[in-house]
Amino acid sequence: xxxxxxxxLSLATLIVAAAGCGGGGTSATPGKADLAAPKEKSGTLTMVxxxxxxxxxxxxEKVVAEYKKANPKVDIKLxxxxxxxxxxxxxxxxxxxxxxxxxxxxxxxxANKFVRAGLAADLTSVIGPSTQWGSTFAPAxxxxxxxxxxxxxxxxxxxxxxxxxxxxVFDKAGVTVPASFxxxxxxxxxxxxxxxxxxAFGNQYGWAAIHxxxxxxxxxxxxxxxxxxxxxxxxxxxxxxxxxxxxxxSDLVGRCGTKDxxxxxxxxxxxxxxxxxAGMHYLESVEFEAVDKAKPPLDWSxxxxxxxxxxxGDPSALTGAPDGFLVNAQSKNAGLAVDFLKFMTSxxxxxxxxxxxxxxxxxxGSASTANANKQLTDALADMDKAGNFAIWLDTIxxxxxxxxxxxxxxxxxxxxxxxxxxxxxVREAAAKAKKEVG
Length: 438
Hints:
The protein is an alpha/beta fold. Helices cover 44% and strands 12% of the residues.
Protein backbone atom coordinates (compact mmCIF):
# COMPACT_ATOMS: atom_id res chain seq x y z
CA UNK A 1 0.00 0.00 0.00
CA UNK A 2 1.40 3.36 -1.04
CA UNK A 3 1.77 5.67 1.93
CA UNK A 4 2.34 8.85 -0.07
CA UNK A 5 -1.23 10.09 -0.41
CA UNK A 6 -0.55 13.78 -0.06
CA UNK A 7 -2.67 16.17 -2.13
CA UNK A 8 -1.76 19.82 -2.57
CA LEU A 9 -5.44 20.67 -2.46
CA SER A 10 -5.37 19.58 1.18
CA LEU A 11 -2.35 21.76 1.87
CA ALA A 12 -4.23 24.69 0.37
CA THR A 13 -6.78 24.36 3.19
CA LEU A 14 -4.23 23.80 5.95
CA ILE A 15 -4.48 26.54 8.59
CA VAL A 16 -1.21 27.20 10.31
CA ALA A 17 -1.95 29.33 13.33
CA ALA A 18 0.23 32.13 14.56
CA ALA A 19 3.07 31.38 16.92
CA GLY A 20 1.78 30.64 20.38
CA CYS A 21 -0.10 27.49 19.35
CA GLY A 22 0.60 24.45 21.42
CA GLY A 23 -0.96 22.16 23.95
CA GLY A 24 2.33 21.65 25.76
CA GLY A 25 2.67 25.13 27.19
CA THR A 26 4.34 28.26 25.86
CA SER A 27 7.82 29.22 24.86
CA ALA A 28 9.31 32.69 25.02
CA THR A 29 10.47 32.85 21.42
CA PRO A 30 8.56 31.35 18.45
CA GLY A 31 10.56 28.48 16.98
CA LYS A 32 12.76 28.27 20.08
CA ALA A 33 12.24 25.52 22.61
CA ASP A 34 14.20 24.06 25.51
CA LEU A 35 15.68 20.93 23.92
CA ALA A 36 17.89 19.92 26.82
CA ALA A 37 17.37 16.36 28.00
CA PRO A 38 15.48 16.46 31.31
CA LYS A 39 17.43 15.32 34.37
CA GLU A 40 14.46 13.17 35.30
CA LYS A 41 12.45 11.72 32.46
CA SER A 42 8.88 12.29 33.52
CA GLY A 43 5.75 13.91 32.21
CA THR A 44 3.29 13.43 29.37
CA LEU A 45 4.02 13.62 25.66
CA THR A 46 1.38 13.91 22.96
CA MET A 47 2.11 12.53 19.51
CA VAL A 48 0.10 12.25 16.29
CA UNK A 49 1.07 10.16 13.27
CA UNK A 50 -0.63 9.28 9.97
CA UNK A 51 0.20 5.59 10.24
CA UNK A 52 -3.10 4.12 11.44
CA UNK A 53 -3.09 1.35 8.83
CA UNK A 54 -2.93 -2.04 10.57
CA UNK A 55 0.31 -2.94 8.79
CA UNK A 56 2.04 0.22 10.12
CA UNK A 57 0.47 1.13 13.48
CA UNK A 58 1.92 -1.72 15.59
CA UNK A 59 5.49 -0.60 14.96
CA UNK A 60 4.87 2.83 16.49
CA GLU A 61 2.84 1.35 19.33
CA LYS A 62 5.74 -0.99 20.11
CA VAL A 63 8.33 1.81 20.14
CA VAL A 64 6.13 3.88 22.46
CA ALA A 65 5.59 0.91 24.80
CA GLU A 66 9.31 0.15 24.96
CA TYR A 67 10.19 3.78 25.75
CA LYS A 68 7.55 3.91 28.48
CA LYS A 69 8.86 0.63 29.93
CA ALA A 70 12.36 2.11 30.11
CA ASN A 71 11.00 5.39 31.50
CA PRO A 72 8.01 4.52 33.73
CA LYS A 73 7.41 8.12 34.76
CA VAL A 74 6.70 9.11 31.14
CA ASP A 75 3.29 8.76 29.56
CA ILE A 76 2.97 9.06 25.77
CA LYS A 77 -0.47 9.67 24.37
CA LEU A 78 -0.10 8.30 20.84
CA UNK A 79 -2.83 8.99 18.30
CA UNK A 80 -2.58 7.41 14.86
CA UNK A 81 -4.91 8.37 12.02
CA UNK A 82 -4.98 7.74 8.28
CA UNK A 83 -3.68 10.02 5.54
CA UNK A 84 -6.79 12.07 4.86
CA UNK A 85 -7.81 12.06 8.51
CA UNK A 86 -4.37 13.39 9.42
CA UNK A 87 -4.65 16.30 6.98
CA UNK A 88 -8.01 17.19 8.50
CA UNK A 89 -6.78 16.76 12.07
CA UNK A 90 -3.59 18.79 11.75
CA UNK A 91 -5.62 21.61 10.20
CA UNK A 92 -8.01 21.60 13.14
CA UNK A 93 -5.22 21.34 15.72
CA UNK A 94 -3.39 24.25 14.11
CA UNK A 95 -6.49 26.42 14.03
CA UNK A 96 -7.37 25.60 17.64
CA UNK A 97 -3.82 26.26 18.84
CA UNK A 98 -3.48 22.75 20.20
CA UNK A 99 -0.67 21.04 18.29
CA UNK A 100 0.79 17.94 19.94
CA UNK A 101 4.35 17.80 21.23
CA UNK A 102 5.40 15.63 18.27
CA UNK A 103 3.60 15.60 14.94
CA UNK A 104 4.10 14.01 11.54
CA UNK A 105 5.16 16.03 8.51
CA UNK A 106 5.97 15.55 4.87
CA UNK A 107 9.15 17.25 3.68
CA UNK A 108 8.98 20.45 1.63
CA UNK A 109 6.65 23.39 1.99
CA UNK A 110 4.27 21.36 4.15
CA ALA A 111 6.89 21.41 6.92
CA ASN A 112 8.10 24.87 5.99
CA LYS A 113 4.69 26.40 6.69
CA PHE A 114 5.00 25.32 10.31
CA VAL A 115 8.55 26.66 10.42
CA ARG A 116 7.55 30.04 9.01
CA ALA A 117 4.78 30.31 11.61
CA GLY A 118 7.20 29.54 14.45
CA LEU A 119 5.42 26.28 15.28
CA ALA A 120 8.28 23.87 14.58
CA ALA A 121 11.19 23.83 17.01
CA ASP A 122 14.64 24.58 15.65
CA LEU A 123 16.41 21.25 16.18
CA THR A 124 19.78 22.25 14.74
CA SER A 125 21.53 22.09 18.11
CA VAL A 126 20.54 18.45 18.58
CA ILE A 127 20.12 16.98 15.09
CA GLY A 128 22.27 19.21 12.88
CA PRO A 129 24.81 17.32 10.72
CA SER A 130 27.65 18.21 13.12
CA THR A 131 25.88 16.79 16.18
CA GLN A 132 26.21 13.25 17.50
CA TRP A 133 22.58 12.39 16.75
CA GLY A 134 22.65 14.14 13.37
CA SER A 135 25.75 12.24 12.28
CA THR A 136 23.81 8.97 12.48
CA PHE A 137 21.53 10.00 9.59
CA ALA A 138 22.09 10.03 5.84
CA PRO A 139 22.90 13.69 5.02
CA ALA A 140 20.30 13.91 2.22
CA UNK A 141 17.57 12.86 4.66
CA UNK A 142 18.49 15.61 7.14
CA UNK A 143 18.66 18.17 4.35
CA UNK A 144 15.08 17.40 3.33
CA UNK A 145 13.89 19.03 6.58
CA UNK A 146 16.29 21.95 6.41
CA UNK A 147 14.98 25.50 6.11
CA UNK A 148 17.08 28.64 6.06
CA UNK A 149 20.17 26.60 6.88
CA UNK A 150 18.62 25.13 10.03
CA UNK A 151 17.22 21.68 10.82
CA UNK A 152 13.58 21.43 11.87
CA UNK A 153 12.61 17.80 11.37
CA UNK A 154 13.65 14.28 12.26
CA UNK A 155 13.58 12.06 9.16
CA UNK A 156 11.82 8.76 9.80
CA UNK A 157 12.30 6.83 6.60
CA UNK A 158 13.89 6.91 3.15
CA UNK A 159 11.68 6.67 0.11
CA UNK A 160 12.78 6.76 -3.52
CA UNK A 161 10.77 6.44 -6.73
CA UNK A 162 11.67 3.71 -9.22
CA UNK A 163 10.35 1.89 -12.26
CA UNK A 164 9.86 -1.71 -11.19
CA UNK A 165 9.99 -4.14 -14.10
CA UNK A 166 8.99 -7.73 -14.75
CA UNK A 167 12.07 -9.59 -16.00
CA UNK A 168 10.06 -12.25 -17.84
CA VAL A 169 8.02 -9.64 -19.71
CA PHE A 170 11.20 -7.76 -20.64
CA ASP A 171 12.89 -10.94 -21.86
CA LYS A 172 9.91 -11.92 -24.01
CA ALA A 173 9.96 -8.52 -25.72
CA GLY A 174 13.74 -8.50 -26.09
CA VAL A 175 13.98 -5.39 -23.92
CA THR A 176 16.91 -4.45 -21.68
CA VAL A 177 17.01 -1.82 -18.96
CA PRO A 178 16.92 1.53 -20.81
CA ALA A 179 19.88 3.87 -20.37
CA SER A 180 18.04 7.05 -21.40
CA PHE A 181 14.52 8.44 -21.56
CA UNK A 182 14.55 7.94 -25.30
CA UNK A 183 15.52 4.30 -24.81
CA UNK A 184 12.59 3.92 -22.42
CA UNK A 185 10.14 5.10 -25.09
CA UNK A 186 11.62 2.62 -27.57
CA UNK A 187 11.33 -0.15 -24.98
CA UNK A 188 7.66 0.72 -24.52
CA UNK A 189 7.06 0.31 -28.25
CA UNK A 190 8.59 -3.18 -28.14
CA UNK A 191 6.57 -4.17 -25.06
CA UNK A 192 3.34 -2.93 -26.63
CA UNK A 193 4.07 -5.05 -29.71
CA UNK A 194 3.95 -8.17 -27.51
CA UNK A 195 0.47 -7.32 -26.27
CA UNK A 196 1.31 -6.11 -22.74
CA UNK A 197 0.84 -2.70 -21.22
CA UNK A 198 4.32 -1.11 -21.08
CA UNK A 199 3.76 0.91 -17.87
CA ALA A 200 0.78 0.43 -15.55
CA PHE A 201 -0.30 3.96 -14.62
CA GLY A 202 -3.21 5.24 -12.53
CA ASN A 203 -3.69 8.93 -11.76
CA GLN A 204 -7.05 9.04 -10.02
CA TYR A 205 -5.74 11.23 -7.20
CA GLY A 206 -3.34 13.34 -9.24
CA TRP A 207 -0.12 12.69 -7.35
CA ALA A 208 1.02 9.74 -9.50
CA ALA A 209 1.54 12.00 -12.52
CA ILE A 210 3.17 14.64 -10.33
CA HIS A 211 5.84 12.12 -9.31
CA UNK A 212 6.85 11.78 -12.96
CA UNK A 213 6.90 15.56 -13.35
CA UNK A 214 9.00 15.88 -10.19
CA UNK A 215 11.71 13.70 -11.72
CA UNK A 216 11.54 15.24 -15.20
CA UNK A 217 11.71 18.78 -13.77
CA UNK A 218 14.86 17.77 -11.89
CA UNK A 219 16.34 16.48 -15.14
CA UNK A 220 15.28 19.36 -17.40
CA UNK A 221 15.69 22.46 -15.22
CA UNK A 222 19.03 23.61 -13.74
CA UNK A 223 19.19 22.85 -10.02
CA UNK A 224 19.65 26.47 -8.92
CA UNK A 225 16.67 27.56 -10.98
CA UNK A 226 14.59 24.74 -9.56
CA UNK A 227 15.46 25.71 -5.99
CA UNK A 228 14.57 29.34 -6.65
CA UNK A 229 11.25 28.47 -8.29
CA UNK A 230 10.24 26.00 -5.59
CA UNK A 231 10.80 28.71 -2.97
CA UNK A 232 7.51 30.66 -2.66
CA UNK A 233 9.18 34.06 -2.31
CA UNK A 234 11.15 33.73 -5.55
CA UNK A 235 9.18 31.31 -7.74
CA UNK A 236 8.85 32.36 -11.40
CA UNK A 237 8.73 29.10 -13.44
CA UNK A 238 9.87 30.75 -16.67
CA UNK A 239 12.61 28.28 -17.60
CA UNK A 240 11.77 26.42 -20.85
CA UNK A 241 12.73 23.15 -19.17
CA UNK A 242 9.35 23.04 -17.40
CA UNK A 243 7.48 22.85 -20.70
CA UNK A 244 10.03 20.32 -21.97
CA UNK A 245 9.35 18.12 -18.94
CA UNK A 246 5.60 18.24 -19.54
CA UNK A 247 6.03 17.36 -23.21
CA UNK A 248 8.25 14.42 -22.28
CA UNK A 249 5.63 13.22 -19.82
CA SER A 250 2.97 13.50 -22.53
CA ASP A 251 5.14 11.38 -24.84
CA LEU A 252 5.67 8.85 -22.05
CA VAL A 253 1.95 8.49 -21.38
CA GLY A 254 1.17 8.26 -25.08
CA ARG A 255 3.67 5.52 -25.82
CA CYS A 256 3.89 3.76 -22.45
CA GLY A 257 1.04 4.65 -20.15
CA THR A 258 -2.49 3.49 -19.48
CA LYS A 259 -5.39 5.02 -21.41
CA ASP A 260 -7.75 7.17 -19.33
CA UNK A 261 -5.30 7.13 -16.40
CA UNK A 262 -7.23 9.88 -14.57
CA UNK A 263 -9.99 7.35 -13.89
CA UNK A 264 -7.67 4.62 -12.66
CA UNK A 265 -6.24 4.35 -9.14
CA UNK A 266 -2.59 3.70 -8.43
CA UNK A 267 -3.55 0.48 -6.65
CA UNK A 268 -5.49 -0.80 -9.66
CA UNK A 269 -2.52 -0.06 -11.91
CA UNK A 270 -0.24 -1.82 -9.47
CA UNK A 271 -2.46 -4.90 -9.52
CA UNK A 272 -2.09 -4.93 -13.31
CA UNK A 273 1.69 -5.03 -12.90
CA UNK A 274 1.61 -7.65 -10.15
CA UNK A 275 -0.53 -9.94 -12.32
CA UNK A 276 2.03 -9.83 -15.14
CA UNK A 277 -0.16 -7.77 -17.48
CA ALA A 278 2.23 -4.80 -17.53
CA GLY A 279 5.97 -4.60 -17.98
CA MET A 280 6.64 -1.73 -15.56
CA HIS A 281 5.14 0.25 -12.71
CA TYR A 282 6.45 3.51 -11.23
CA LEU A 283 6.40 3.02 -7.48
CA GLU A 284 8.07 4.02 -4.25
CA SER A 285 10.61 1.90 -2.43
CA VAL A 286 8.13 1.65 0.46
CA GLU A 287 5.95 -0.35 -1.95
CA PHE A 288 8.60 -2.96 -2.74
CA GLU A 289 7.14 -5.27 -0.12
CA ALA A 290 3.85 -5.44 -2.07
CA VAL A 291 5.73 -6.62 -5.16
CA ASP A 292 7.59 -9.22 -3.12
CA LYS A 293 4.26 -10.60 -1.90
CA ALA A 294 2.79 -10.96 -5.41
CA LYS A 295 0.99 -14.24 -6.11
CA PRO A 296 2.31 -15.93 -8.16
CA PRO A 297 5.77 -14.54 -7.33
CA LEU A 298 7.39 -12.07 -9.74
CA ASP A 299 10.99 -12.13 -10.86
CA TRP A 300 11.55 -8.40 -10.80
CA SER A 301 14.01 -5.60 -10.38
CA UNK A 302 13.97 -1.82 -10.76
CA UNK A 303 15.72 1.18 -12.27
CA UNK A 304 15.40 4.95 -12.06
CA UNK A 305 13.28 6.81 -14.56
CA UNK A 306 16.18 7.50 -16.95
CA UNK A 307 17.28 11.02 -17.83
CA UNK A 308 16.66 12.47 -21.29
CA UNK A 309 19.76 12.91 -23.43
CA UNK A 310 21.39 16.31 -22.99
CA UNK A 311 19.08 17.34 -20.15
CA UNK A 312 19.96 20.70 -18.56
CA GLY A 313 19.29 19.67 -14.97
CA ASP A 314 20.78 17.18 -12.53
CA PRO A 315 20.95 13.62 -13.95
CA SER A 316 21.85 12.27 -10.48
CA ALA A 317 18.71 13.57 -8.75
CA LEU A 318 16.23 10.99 -7.48
CA THR A 319 12.58 11.64 -6.81
CA GLY A 320 11.74 10.86 -3.21
CA ALA A 321 11.99 12.19 0.30
CA PRO A 322 11.86 11.05 3.87
CA ASP A 323 8.75 11.42 5.97
CA GLY A 324 9.44 12.81 9.39
CA PHE A 325 8.37 14.36 12.66
CA LEU A 326 8.43 17.94 13.91
CA VAL A 327 8.56 19.05 17.54
CA ASN A 328 6.10 21.70 18.65
CA ALA A 329 8.11 24.84 19.34
CA GLN A 330 5.69 25.77 22.13
CA SER A 331 5.95 22.45 23.96
CA LYS A 332 7.04 22.57 27.60
CA ASN A 333 8.31 18.99 27.11
CA ALA A 334 10.39 19.60 23.98
CA GLY A 335 13.50 18.09 25.57
CA LEU A 336 11.60 14.94 26.44
CA ALA A 337 10.18 14.85 22.91
CA VAL A 338 13.70 14.95 21.48
CA ASP A 339 14.78 12.18 23.82
CA PHE A 340 11.92 9.98 22.60
CA LEU A 341 12.73 10.69 18.94
CA LYS A 342 16.35 9.73 19.59
CA PHE A 343 15.06 6.46 21.01
CA MET A 344 12.85 5.92 17.96
CA THR A 345 15.86 6.29 15.66
CA SER A 346 18.27 4.08 17.58
CA UNK A 347 20.04 1.41 15.52
CA UNK A 348 17.72 -1.23 16.97
CA UNK A 349 14.49 0.60 16.24
CA UNK A 350 15.68 1.76 12.83
CA UNK A 351 16.53 -1.82 11.87
CA UNK A 352 13.10 -2.93 13.12
CA UNK A 353 11.44 -0.29 10.91
CA UNK A 354 12.96 -2.00 7.89
CA UNK A 355 12.24 -5.52 9.08
CA UNK A 356 8.69 -4.89 10.31
CA UNK A 357 7.43 -2.41 7.72
CA UNK A 358 9.70 -2.90 4.74
CA UNK A 359 10.74 0.78 4.86
CA UNK A 360 14.30 1.97 4.57
CA UNK A 361 15.53 4.02 7.51
CA UNK A 362 17.76 7.10 7.12
CA UNK A 363 19.82 5.84 10.07
CA UNK A 364 23.19 4.70 8.74
CA GLY A 365 23.84 0.97 8.89
CA SER A 366 20.25 0.05 9.73
CA ALA A 367 19.58 -2.06 6.62
CA SER A 368 21.28 -5.37 5.86
CA THR A 369 20.54 -8.74 4.34
CA ALA A 370 19.28 -9.78 7.77
CA ASN A 371 16.31 -7.40 7.77
CA ALA A 372 15.80 -6.35 4.13
CA ASN A 373 15.29 -8.03 0.78
CA LYS A 374 17.73 -7.58 -2.08
CA GLN A 375 15.66 -4.91 -3.80
CA LEU A 376 15.58 -2.77 -0.66
CA THR A 377 19.32 -3.05 -0.03
CA ASP A 378 19.94 -2.28 -3.72
CA ALA A 379 17.66 0.75 -3.45
CA LEU A 380 19.56 1.97 -0.40
CA ALA A 381 22.83 1.68 -2.31
CA ASP A 382 21.29 3.61 -5.19
CA MET A 383 20.02 6.36 -2.90
CA ASP A 384 23.54 6.77 -1.59
CA LYS A 385 24.58 7.61 -5.16
CA ALA A 386 21.86 10.22 -5.63
CA GLY A 387 23.13 13.78 -5.86
CA ASN A 388 20.05 14.91 -3.97
CA PHE A 389 16.42 14.07 -3.41
CA ALA A 390 13.99 15.69 -5.81
CA ILE A 391 11.26 16.11 -3.17
CA TRP A 392 7.70 15.42 -4.32
CA LEU A 393 6.54 18.42 -6.34
CA ASP A 394 3.20 18.53 -4.52
CA THR A 395 4.84 18.96 -1.11
CA ILE A 396 7.99 20.96 -1.85
CA UNK A 397 6.14 23.77 -3.62
CA UNK A 398 3.66 26.27 -2.23
CA UNK A 399 0.07 25.00 -2.09
CA UNK A 400 -1.02 27.37 -4.90
CA UNK A 401 1.69 26.05 -7.20
CA UNK A 402 1.08 22.43 -6.27
CA UNK A 403 -2.65 22.82 -6.92
CA UNK A 404 -1.99 24.40 -10.32
CA UNK A 405 0.32 21.57 -11.27
CA UNK A 406 -2.14 18.90 -10.12
CA UNK A 407 -5.12 20.29 -11.99
CA UNK A 408 -3.02 21.29 -14.97
CA UNK A 409 -1.44 17.90 -15.51
CA UNK A 410 -4.80 16.17 -15.03
CA UNK A 411 -6.15 18.47 -17.74
CA UNK A 412 -3.22 17.64 -19.97
CA UNK A 413 -3.92 13.93 -19.58
CA UNK A 414 -7.58 14.45 -20.45
CA UNK A 415 -6.63 16.49 -23.53
CA UNK A 416 -8.05 19.79 -22.31
CA UNK A 417 -4.73 21.56 -21.71
CA UNK A 418 -1.39 21.88 -23.47
CA UNK A 419 1.96 21.90 -21.64
CA UNK A 420 2.20 25.63 -22.32
CA UNK A 421 -1.23 26.25 -20.80
CA UNK A 422 -0.29 24.21 -17.73
CA UNK A 423 2.76 26.37 -17.15
CA UNK A 424 0.75 29.56 -17.62
CA UNK A 425 -1.43 28.41 -14.74
CA VAL A 426 1.63 27.49 -12.66
CA ARG A 427 3.21 30.92 -13.20
CA GLU A 428 -0.04 32.62 -12.16
CA ALA A 429 -0.14 30.45 -9.04
CA ALA A 430 3.51 31.27 -8.26
CA ALA A 431 2.68 34.98 -8.43
CA LYS A 432 -0.14 34.47 -5.89
CA ALA A 433 2.17 32.48 -3.64
CA LYS A 434 4.78 35.23 -3.78
CA LYS A 435 2.24 37.79 -2.60
CA GLU A 436 1.04 35.49 0.20
CA VAL A 437 4.48 35.00 1.71
CA GLY A 438 5.30 38.66 1.32
